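Re: beginner question about structure tokens

> Can someone show what the tokenized structure looks like for a real chain? I only ever see the sequence side.

Sure, here's an example I had lying around. Input first:
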Amino acid sequence: MPRSVNHVASRKRRKKIMKLSRGYFGARSNVWTVAKNAVEKGLVYAYRDRKNKKRAFRRLWIARINAGARLNGTTYSKLIHALKEANIDLNRKVLADLAMNHPETFKAVVASVDK
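And the corresponding structure tokens:
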């Protein structure tokens, strides 16, 4: 009796990987083993960097808030502490946007907690 191989499933699995490897350079886009390794590595990087993106934005927001706070005579840590004490729930993303795009509003926020 001949060996039964599920070609439908294995072809579908390979096509899925090859579709993900479109646009890669050289053999990475059309040689199965090279493409499989490249796609797996790319998915690992994608997973890792979804986490790193959050860290990078938080660092950017903190830098912008600190710059805006120093222009208004305080520091980042003192401003965040004063906001917590005053129960003002503005997150870092919003504070950074205010510091960059609406400096007069940011100055009012700093003044409201600087009493």
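Each token stands for a local structural state, so reading them left to right follows the chain. The chain has one domain: 7-113.
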